[in-house]
Amino acid sequence: MDRKQIIEIATDAISKHYPEMEGVEPEIEMMDTGIVTSTFAKVGIPPTEGQKIWVATFRKEVITEEGLPINRITRVTLDESGKVIKISESK
Predict the structure, then answer these.
(1) What's the CA angle centered on 40, arms 38 and 44, to 5 degrees?
(2) pLDDT score, position 1
(3) pLDDT one digit per residue (tens) for the chain, 91 residues
(4) In three state form, how does the secondary structure of the chain look?
């Protein structure tokens, strides 16, 4: 999957769960969930291959009822094929 497809999938997922974040452009990052080989050696188990995931971070400043600005952060984690693994938000 390329960045454009990941942005589209993440934006669709966010708009369904958090409509107030609609129109926010996400920051996209690819991460590797692999563990360093030396860690496996320490515990005496064979190493396993990590998974590559995409993380889309949406940031928006909103005004509270008291009139104070706060940052609202919502993240969408997707696997390599574009399946949504997790959606999380700041409080």
Answers:
(1) 115
(2) 78
(3) 788 999 999 999 999 989 888 889 999 999 888 776 777 777 777 777 778 999 999 999 988 899 999 999 999 999 989 999 999 998 7
(4) CCHHHHHHHHHHHHHHHCHHHCCCCCEEEEEECCCCHHHHHHHCCCCCCCCEEEEEEEEEEEECCCCCEEEEEEEEEEECCCCEEEEEECC
What is the tally of structural domains in the chain?
Answer: 1
Angle made by CA atoms 49, 57, 12, in degrees to the nearest 5: 95
Containing structural domain, residue 16:
3-89
Of 81, 58, 61, the closest CA to residue 69 belongs to 61
